[in-house]
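Structure in, sequence out. Go:
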């Protein structure tokens, strides 16, 4: 397995480019190999993997978990989506800054967002399957979210009227999260 790690303007938020073996039959790509991930400084243990399917215009996020803190490795398996992450680490020089990227199943990239980032995506194709590996088991009492359209963040989502869950539509602002004692778990 060979991966190239691309940095982003947000420290610790990375784009992983994977080597692909391709011929007339199709292609093969290793998406995770613990020793290679460890060699490039990424977590080598992901105790939970998730897959979601969403229709065009669905926006999921901005989600994060503080207990246990979760890093997330995201990729588009089918379709096209806008994958994004926001730095919510107290004291970070990029606190409140976001990074988004259009990714399709034609790409060989994954987005790695460490703990201390709120993550989300919106579907740009008829439907999209998003796979993500997380570094901690899901704990519904230790999760939260930031409102997708928090004016303080100014995220340029590529959909004007997204389809949202009630939970995502009513999520807190970044300022409200930073006022909570749990936010100290993500101190920079």
């Amino acid at each position: 397995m060979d991966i190239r790690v691309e940095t982003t303007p947000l420290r610790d938020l990375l784009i992983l480019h994977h080597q692909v073996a391709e011929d007339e039959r199709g292609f093969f790509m290793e998406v995770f190999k613990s020793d290679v991930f460890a060699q490039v400084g990424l977590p080598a243990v992901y105790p939970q993997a998730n897959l979601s399917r969403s229709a065009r215009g669905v926006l999921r996020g901005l989600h994060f978990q503080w207990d246990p803190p979760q890093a997330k490795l995201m990729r588009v398996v089918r379709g096209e989506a806008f994958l994004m992450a926001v730095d919510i680490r107290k004291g970070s020089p990029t606190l409140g800054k976001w990074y988004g990227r259009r990714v399709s199943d034609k790409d060989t990239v994954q987005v790695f967002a460490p703990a201390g980032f709120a993550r989300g995506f919106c579907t740009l194709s008829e439907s999209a399957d998003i796979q993500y590996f997380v570094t901690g088991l899901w704990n519904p009492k230790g999760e939260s979210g930031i409102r997708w359209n928090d004016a303080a963040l100014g995220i340029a989502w590529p959909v004007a009227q997204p389809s949202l869950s009630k939970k995502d539509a009513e999520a807190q602002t970044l300022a409200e999260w930073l006022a909570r004692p749990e936010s100290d778990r993500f101190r920079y």
